C-alpha cells in the first residue's frame, strides 16, 4: 500500500486505576504518579492511500469539483454583455430621433408605459413591432442586435411563465349540481361562434385566454419599458433629459419641491451609468486577458477571484464618485443645488418634427382606446 499522507494523533489519558476505579474517596496523585500519567499515551495512525486495490481508503479529493463554475465563460459573457452602449448617448448615425425635442420624448415614454396595459392584445404586439423596427432604424447594428436579443429573451420567458402559470393549473373543484344526463335534460349546444376558453393544453398545464391576456400584457409592457428607455437614452444627451425634466417640474417649486436638487441628481446619475458599465467591462476584460488556467484552481480559489472581482468594481466606483465630488467642489459647488447654476449646453426648440410626433402620438392613443371597444 502506497501511503501519500500520514497523520499521527496523540491522545493522553490519566491512569485508569486512579480515576475510573478509585480505591479512596480522595484520590490525590503524587508528583511521581503525575509524571507517569503524562507518559501514558495512545497513538493512532491514520493514512490516506492511493491505489486501485484498496477499496476501503478511497481518495476523496477526486470528488471535489474543479473548474465546475466555468468562470472563464462567465467573465467573457460579462465582458460581451456590456460591450453594447447600454444607457449611453450614441451620436452617430444621426437620425430624426436625435432632433426630436426631449420633452416630446418624455411624453412618448409616459404614453408607452400606459398603453400596453390599456389596449387590445393586437395593439400591444403592434407596439412591440413598432419599437423593434424603430430600434433597427435608429441604433447601430451591433447595438440593436444585442439589446433586442436580450429584451426579447426576457419578455419571452415572462410570456411563457405567466401564460402557463396564471390559469394553467385547473383547480380541483367538485361540481355541486349533477350532470344534465342524470336529470334527463339535454346538453347545452356548443357556441356557434366557436369560442373556447381553453386555447391549448401542454400535458398537465393549460394555456387559457386569461393566461394569454396576462402574459401578453406583462411581456409587452416589459419590452416597451426597456426598449423605449434605451431608445431615449441612446438618442438624447443627459443635459437634454435634465432640461426636459426641469421644464415639467418647474410648477412643483410652488409647493416646496426641490426641483434643482432632483435635476442635479438625475444629471449625475446619467453620467455615472456609463462609468459603472465601463468598470464592470474593463475589469472582466482584464481577468480574461490574463488567460488564467481555471482547471488548475480549486473551488475556493475560483470563488476568491469572483470576490476580488466584485471588490475591485466597488472600489473603482467609489473612487470615481470621490473624484466627481472633488471636481464639483473645485467648480464652486457648496451643497446648495438652488444656488448652483446647471449648464444644459443647448436649449431645446420645438419644431415641425415635434409637432408630427405629437400628432402621431395622439392618433396612437385614440387607436388604443378604441381598440377596447371595437376589437373583441
From TrEMBL:
Which stretches are transmembrane? 121-139, 151-173, 211-231, 251-273, 350-370
Q: Which UniProt keywords apply?
A: Membrane, Transmembrane, Transmembrane helix
Keyword set includes DNA repair? no
One cellular component term from this protein's GO annotations in UniProt: chloroplast
Lipid bilayer topology: Multi-pass membrane protein
Q: Which subcellular locations apply to this protein? A: Membrane
InterPro entries with a match to the protein in the record = ABC/ECF_trnsptr_transmembrane
Q: Does the keyword Disulfide bond apply?
A: no
Recorded protein name is Protein ABCI12, chloroplastic isoform X1
Amino acid at each position: 500500500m502506497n501511503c501519500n499522507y500520514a497523520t499521527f494523533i496523540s491522545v493522553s489519558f490519566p491512569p485508569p486505576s486512579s480515576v475510573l476505579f478509585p480505591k479512596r474517596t480522595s484520590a490525590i496523585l503524587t508528583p511521581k504518579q503525575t509524571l507517569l500519567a503524562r507518559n501514558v499515551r495512545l497513538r493512532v495512525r491514520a493514512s490516506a492511500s492511493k491505489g486501485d486495490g484498496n477499496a476501503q481508503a478511497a481518495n476523496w479529493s477526486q470528488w471535489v469539483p474543479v473548474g465546475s463554475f466555468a468562470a472563464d465563460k462567465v467573465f467573457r459573457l460579462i465582458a460581451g454583455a456590456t460591450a453594447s452602449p447600454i444607457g449611453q448617448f450614441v451620436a452617430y448615425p444621426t437620425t430624426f430621433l436625435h432632433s426630436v425635442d426631449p420633452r416630446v420624448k418624455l411624453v412618448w415614454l409616459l404614453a408607452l408605459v400606459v398603453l400596453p396595459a390599456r389596449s387590445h392584445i393586437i395593439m400591444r404586439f403592434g407596439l412591440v413591432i413598432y419599437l423593434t423596427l424603430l430600434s433597427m432604424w435608429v441604433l447601430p447594428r451591433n447595438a440593436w442586435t444585442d439589446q433586442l436579443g436580450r429584451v426579447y429573451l426576457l419578455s419571452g420567458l415572462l410570456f411563457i411563465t405567466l401564460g402557463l402559470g396564471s390559469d394553467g393549473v385547473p383547480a380541483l373543484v367538485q361540481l355541486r349540481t349533477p350532470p344534465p344526463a342524470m336529470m334527463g335534460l339535454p346538453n347545452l349546444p356548443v357556441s356557434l361562434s366557436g369560442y373556447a376558453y381553453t386555447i391549448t393544453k401542454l400535458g398537465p398545464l393549460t394555456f387559457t385566454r386569461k393566461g394569454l391576456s396576462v402574459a401578453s400584457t406583462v411581456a409587452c409592457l416589459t419590452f416597451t419599458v426597456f426598449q423605449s428607455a434605451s431608445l431615449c437614452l441612446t438618442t438624447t444627451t443627459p443635459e437634454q433629459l435634465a432640461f426636459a425634466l426641469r421644464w415639467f417640474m418647474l410648477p412643483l417649486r410652488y409647493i416646496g419641491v426641490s426641483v434643482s436638487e432632483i435635476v442635479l441628481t438625475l444629471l449625475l446619475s446619467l453620467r455615472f451609468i456609463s462609468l459603472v458599465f465601463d468598470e464592470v467591462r474593463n475589469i472582466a476584460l482584464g481577468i480574461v486577458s490574463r488567460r488564467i488556467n481555471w482547471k488548475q484552481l480549486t473551488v475556493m480559489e475560483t470563488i476568491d477571484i469572483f470576490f476580488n472581482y466584485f471588490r475591485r468594481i466597488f472600489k473603482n466606483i467609489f473612487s470615481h464618485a470621490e473624484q466627481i465630488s472633488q471636481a464639483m467642489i473645485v467648480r464652486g459647488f457648496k451643497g446648495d443645488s438652488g444656488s448652483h447654476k446647471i449648464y444644459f449646453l443647448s436649449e431645446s426648440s420645438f419644431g415641425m418634427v415635434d409637432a408630427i410626433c405629437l400628432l402621431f402620438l395622439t392618433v396612437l392613443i385614440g387607436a388604443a382606446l378604441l381598440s377596447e371597444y371595437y376589437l373583441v
